[in-house]
Amino acid sequence: MAMKIGGRSFDKRAEQGVRDSYMRETVRTAQERLYTNKSQAEEELGDWEEWRSLSEKIRSHTVDNLDYYLERLSENVSKNGGHVYFAQTAAEANRYIQSIAERKEAKKVMKAKSMVTEEISMNEALEATGVEVIESDLGEYILQIDDHDPPSHIVAPALHKNKEQIKDTFSRRKGYQKTSKPEELTQFVRKKLRREFLEADIGITGCNFAVAESGSVALVTNEGNARLVTTIPKTHIAVMGMERVVPTWEELDILVSMLCRSAVGQKLTSYVTGLTGPKAQEDVDGPEEFHLVIVDNGRSNILGTPFQSALHCIRCAACINVCPVYRHIGGHAYGSIYPGPIGAVLSPLLEGYEDHQDLPYASSLCAACTDACPVKIPLHELLVEHRKVIAQEKKTTLGETFAMKGFGLVASSPRLFEMAAKTAPALLAPFTNKETIEKGPGPLKEWTAIRDFPGPKKERFRDWVKERNKGGAE
Amino acid sequence: MSSGNVQNQTTFLNHVADRLGRERRTTVNPPSYFSFPHQKMGKEADISELAKVLKKQCLAIHTDVREATINNLREVIDQVFVEYEAITAAVWDDPRFHQFGLDSIVERPQVSVWGEEPGREANIQAAEQADVGITFSDYTLAESGTVVIMNGAGKGLSVSLLPTNYIAIIPLSTLVPRMTQATAAIHEQAEKGRRLPACINFISGPSNSADIELDLVVGVHGPVRACYILVDDLKKEKKNEHETN
Amino acid sequence: MKVSLFITCLTDIFYPDVGKNVVELLERHGCEVDFPEKQTCCGQPAFNSGYHKDAKKAAKHMIETFEHAEKVVTPSGSCAAMFKEYPSLLKDEIRWRERAEQLAGKTYELTQFLYRVLHVTNTGATLQGVATYHTSCHMVRLLGETEAPYVLLSNVQGLELKELPNKQNCCGFGGTFAVKMSTISEQMVDEKVEHIEETEADVLIGADNGCLMNIGGRIQKEKKPIKVMHIAEVLNHREMGGGDV
Ligand code: SF4
């Protein structure tokens, strides 16, 4: 499956992440910097909470009326002369895109960064028909020439790599001879790709937002590659997840403002491009043919469930940038192209629990993600919701189920609670050393491998209260 | 313009409505938003305050700023050419070049005017080889340091994109507080059922990337340097008013 | 004022001294403290693990236990937040939901109660030393309380408070997370301890015994010379020479 990356279990991947000290250092610095930038950008907006509430409202209104807005969008694209293809599955989307490439006799496709094309494995599908697909986003390009290393972050896909590693890849694969200075590496890519742009037959982009009222696609970028992809090739295909629609340009304003600030702490990225393709008769450049591919690929299953708000996501990665779990294990450990809190919510929804059952547990529920989300998705609550589903479907271990049943029983019965609390000291006594447990039994083992555990005290608080009430005074 | 194809729409949208637990909706009441924080921003600011905000923001986005009057605009542009070691240029076919007294620049042999060459490739080629691309700004957003350009016909997309450097001429009259005012104007066009320009660009400085170790590198696929030239086109109007009074 | 104390199961069993300090502190500020003996646990372990049926049992029991209370005070931001979660947990059982809402409305975390209800800013405590304060995630993000502990701590005589770097980061407790994802939890608690050490404080203060059990357990295991105190112990602390006001 396409979203899934890496083999092995979550535990193994997480451990590997924890041991990758270089990756962790980069991620830590990145998170710190992004956190500072975002906080500053929030402050500049005035009342950030007011902006968040407005954004949430826009997203929930749109998703609640998704059929209506998608209809308007497709009608308007068509009115402008563009083509729209609604794809229920990844395979349908790929088949349609392949058919365009075939009709155009395309040899070379230039791509801008897009998560949804990763999700549906579009590159592989095109390459299978003999079309060369070149990633033009710097980060994606680095990954592509490094044997398709998977992305580890949805905004900065090559975040896990350092410049030395990048330099080595460039010299190994592309005969690069200069230093590891980011400026020089970037200049090299600029020169290399310029030629490719001029020769490309088709440009493919994702879609940050599609504006229903005008049939436009908005792309939010910094490098300028998405502009090249939509300026030079004669055919432009935009691929969008079906939830990425906004009613009008007025809502676009709000969401783009929030996206740029939350993703990179910029007021606006260098390029926000509103494309209402195809080009007009009198235009000289720009695509002569425009296709919008609207992809479901599992999203509709989320509608009408307690998880619906996950579809409000604008893919800013703010939740990833504050997540302590992500900081320590990195993006690859999640085993999905969507990492971090939103990935832990989304991956099981789009691809099922089988491959992603551990993800909802990879959170201390500290709610930093929920707090950071510009459209107020209650991410940590959705993680609990996943746990609920998993528990209900009895996918957890029997031990846990019994333990929790027992818990419910004990916590709702003062008598049992009393018994449990009273027996605890006795049970733990053999492990207790001066009121501390250094090596505990059962589930305590995991705890005490890392930390000491307090031994239960001889007198509980409630015993003290009883005594005190009896005696009347201290 | 003939309309494009739409495929699989009905099944797809019926399914969406179904999942939402209701019939397809053919009308939707526009959402009622309770607050408009974006409309409040910069509302009180006058042009000179907006210009100040813009200039400050340009520092943050690695963009050079020059100021000019209509009388010395040509010289200021030439100075930027010298500074950027630029000789060739690509410019829009835009009446404003004439209105702002720039005919002598446009007519230079090293300057190619968009659409002048026959055919798509030749124009792209010319822009690709130019040292500088020059366009006017249609709306200028103070908050984010953004030049909004409505491309189309003589206003080619490539001019602000392919040359090594980019110069945006910003008449002060185009200054607005933020994106809100530009999108409101675009929204108005759309509401009237007008076809929007095939490409509307919001450009904030030179192209850049932070994909390598989150280090900001300026100049990736688009221009390596960007310069905004603020031209005071309001003074003249004022003078005229004065004279007629 | 009459307050009913929800001591939390952790404090009851493992940290009775903290409980005693809570009682003394409340009494000193004119409260009559009632301890409903039937109280058990707020149900968070089951809730967070997705066993909502079992969590509901605990919730209903606690709602009944505290039904008579005027105000409920608890020395844990996390458990207070769990009480506030009851209405949504019981949203499908209207009668229970209403009762849950009443409980949620009258529940306060200890410092919140002192500061916001009793309007206390100075508890008259003295403690000589350099300390840093760990803000627990649930107190800050779920209860939205960012001020009360700081105000109260800032008025403890003799106490020098150092800001904890990256204080917004979770300590890695997360209930069952600490054992279920122990590899990751270990990294998180280590990072927290590192930041605590950076402050060179000799006392770590927190308002949640869950976090303190985690961080304190790690500090103890690593034999670091840092003392761990619940905020109730600090706010109720007296030293010779420090006067009662
Ligand atoms: S869930 Fe929220 S914070 Fe995370 S990527 Fe989506 S919009 Fe951004």
TrEMBL record, chain A:
Family: Belongs to the LutB/YkgF family.
The organism's place on the tree of life at top rank: Bacteria
Function description: Is involved in L-lactate degradation and allows cells to grow with lactate as the sole carbon source. Has probably a role as an electron transporter during oxidation of L-lactate.
Annotated PANTHER family: LACTATE UTILIZATION PROTEIN B
Key words, A-Z: 4Fe-4S, Electron transport, Iron, Iron-sulfur, Metal-binding, Repeat, Transport
GO biological process, one term: lactate metabolic process
Span of domain 4Fe-4S ferredoxin-type: 304-334
MF-aspect GO terms: 4 iron, 4 sulfur cluster binding; metal ion binding
Protein name: Lactate utilization protein B
Cross-referenced Pfam families: Fer4_8, LUD_dom, LutB_C
Binding site for [4Fe-4S] cluster 2: C323, C366, C369
Ligand binding ([4Fe-4S] cluster 1): C313, C316, C319, C373
Record bears the keyword Metal-binding: yes
Stored Gene3D superfamilies: Alpha-helical ferredoxin (1.10.1060.10), NagB/RpiA/CoA transferase-like (3.40.50.10420)
From TrEMBL, chain B:
SUPFAM superfamilies: NagB/RpiA/CoA transferase-like
Alphabetical list of Pfam families matching this protein: LUD_dom
Annotated LUD domain residues: 53-231
Protein name (database record): L-lactate dehydrogenase complex protein LldG
TrEMBL record, chain C:
Gene Ontology CC annotation, any one: cytosol
Entry superkingdom: Bacteria
Family according to the record: Belongs to the LutA/YkgE family.
Role this protein plays: Is involved in L-lactate degradation and allows cells to grow with lactate as the sole carbon source.
Name of this chain's protein: Lactate utilization protein A
GO molecular function: oxidoreductase activity
Gene Ontology biological process terms in this record: lactate metabolic process
Domain Cysteine-rich intervals: 3-84, 132-215
